[in-house]
C-alpha cells in the first residue's frame, strides 16, 4: 500500500480520464454542427473512459485483485464507441443534416448523381 | 439505393462474441458474485438483438434456428422440474442440494441443483425477450 509511485500513476490516469470527459462535454457544447460535435464526443470520451477504466484496473491490481472485466471493458469500448460515432454521423448525413456554413468541401454532395451515371 | 453496412456488420461479428461470453460468465458467476440467470439471459438476448440490428431477421433466424416460444416452455419445465425433483427425496418443494465433486481439469467444484433452476430462468428470459422483439419487428 505504500507504493507512492504507482498511486501517483493511478491518480494521473483517473484525473486524465475525467479531464478528457470534461473536454468532450465542452466540445459538444461549443462546436457548431452535428459532425464536429460527434467528432469531439466520440474521440475524447472514448479515450477518457479507457483511461478511467485502466486507472481503476491498476487500483484493484495494487490490492492483488486482477479484474479482467475492466480490461474487457477497455477493449469493448475501444472497438464499439467509434462505430457508434460513425453510425450517428452517417445517419445524420443521410437524413439531410446540413454541414456548418464554414465548411469548404463536401465530397458526398454529388454521390447520388454519380451513382446514377454509372 | 442499397445501404452499405460493412462497418457495423464487421464490428457486430466481433462484439457479439464478447457479449455472449460475458453473459455466460455472468450466468455461471451468479452464485458467488453479482450475476445470475436473469441478467445473463438479458445480455444473451442483447447480443441477438445486436445481430438483428446489423443483419436482417431472416439471416438471424438461420443462425439461431430456435422457436423462442418453445425455448420459454423448456425453461419453465426445467425450473418446475428441479422444484418437483425435491419431492422425490421426501423434502419440501424447491429444496435444493449440493455436493462437492472432483471433476477432471476443473478440480474440486461444488455442483448445485440451483444451477438447473437458473438455466430455466435463463432460457425463459431469452425466450420472452426475443419473442417480444421479433413479434414487434415482424409486424407491419
UniProtKB/TrEMBL annotation, chain B:
Entry-linked Pfam families: MnhB
Cellular component terms per the entry's GO annotation: plasma membrane
Name recorded for this polypeptide: Monovalent cation/H+ antiporter subunit B
Lineage: Bacteria, Bacillati, Bacillota, Bacilli, Bacillales
Transmembrane segments: 7-29, 35-56, 68-89, 109-133
Membrane association type: Multi-pass membrane protein
Top-rank lineage group of the source organism: Bacteria
Signal peptide: none
Primary site of residence: membrane
Sequence ranges assigned to domain Na+/H+ antiporter MnhB subunit-related protein in this UniProt record: 7-131
Family: Belongs to the CPA3 antiporters (TC 2.A.63) subunit B family.
Localization terms from the record: Cell membrane
Keywords: Cell membrane, Membrane, Transmembrane, Transmembrane helix
InterPro entries per UniProt: CPA3_antiporter_subunitB (IPR050622), MnhB (IPR007182)
Coiled coil regions in record: none
